[in-house]
Structure to design on (277 residues):
């Protein structure tokens, strides 16, 4: 095996589906052993069973809001694989772009508390549970960020604020944990995943993938410069491998790589400047 992550050990929160699962599978293909953490043990065990090398994938049931469970998950990962090189902080939920004007004050409060507890506190608690092991290996943290870490309208105010908060968290931890632990992010654009909504808005049963399936064929192309960019999470995993690898990105910390079809270079007049090409 000669991958970019040969012999690495990673812990991926939200590793049972979506981009977390895709990253876990890619890390295994690159030579790593991976603990996948989530709330749904059955889903996690299916990822293990589907792996071409199930001995290098380990399912851990935990809620990212539970600090003790995260500490136990790190301890179990080290007991199973001997160390921890990479934390991929990734588990999250979306607000389905629920606008401020469509929330009353009570909904706003409960949804904020739930979504920030998962998306922001969950990243912080995972980092807290992991940093001691990461110092030992001179490892790193890779956070799943979003186009919503930089731009509006990728969520409602609560999701957008949460992903901006994660960007700040990534930068602050990159400073605090340097020089021994690097901290970076991958700011993903739209992917066809099982991303769910908050229980506070009774949206836990909604799945983002369904809205991709409902998209009519005659709809204009997505408003991103790379109209034909893939939405398959597996096509978003390369930057995670790059940032996890000491050999490939040893001097990089405090940075977010945007993998979003070029939203950041979009002009005001049209989504793409090259439609006439
Ligand atoms: N899908 C997109 O278009 C998109 C775009 C940008 C960023 N993201 C981000 O990607 C990350 C992963 O989401 P996804 O799109 O792969 O969706 P997903 O629902 O497939 O994956 C999220 C995973 O996190 C788990 N999870 C949720 N709450 C949890 C909790 N409290 N404790 C433990 N596990 C929990 C879920 O069970 C699921 O397995 C999120 O942080 C999301 O904000 C997604």
């Amino acid at each position: 095996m000669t991958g970019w992550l040969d012999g690495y050990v990673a812990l991926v929160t939200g590793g049972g589906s979506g981009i977390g699962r895709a990253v876990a599978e890619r890390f295994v293909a690159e030579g790593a052993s991976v603990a996948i953490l989530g709330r749904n043990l059955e889903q996690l065990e299916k990822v293990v069973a589907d792996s071409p090398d199930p001995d290098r994938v380990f399912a851990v049931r935990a809620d990212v809001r539970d600090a003790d469970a995260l500490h136990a998950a790190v301890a179990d990962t080290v007991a199973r694989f001997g160390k921890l090189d990479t934390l991929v902080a990734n588990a999250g939920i979306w607000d389905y772009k629920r606008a401020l004007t469509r929330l009353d004050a009570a909904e706003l409060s409960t949804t904020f508390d739930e979504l920030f507890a998962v998306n922001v506190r969950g990243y912080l608690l995972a980092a807290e549970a992991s940093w001691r092991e990461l110092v030992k290996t001179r490892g790193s943290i890779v956070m799943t960020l979003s186009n919503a870490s930089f731009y509006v309208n990728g969520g409602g105010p609560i999701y957008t604020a949460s992903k901006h908060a994660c960007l700040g968290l990534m930068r602050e931890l990159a400073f605090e944990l340097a020089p021994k632990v690097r901290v970076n992010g991958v700011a993903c654009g739209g992917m066809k995943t099982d991303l769910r909504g908050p229980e506070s808005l009774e949206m836990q049963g909604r799945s983002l993938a369904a809205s991709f399936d409902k998209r009519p064929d005659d709809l204009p192309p997505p408003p991103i410069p790379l109209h034909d960019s893939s939405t398959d999470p597996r096509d978003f995993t390369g930057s995670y491998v790059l940032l996890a690898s000491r050999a490939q990105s040893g001097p990089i910390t405090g940075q977010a790589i945007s993998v979003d079809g070029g939203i950041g270079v979009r002009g005001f007049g049209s989504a793409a400047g090259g439609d006439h090409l």
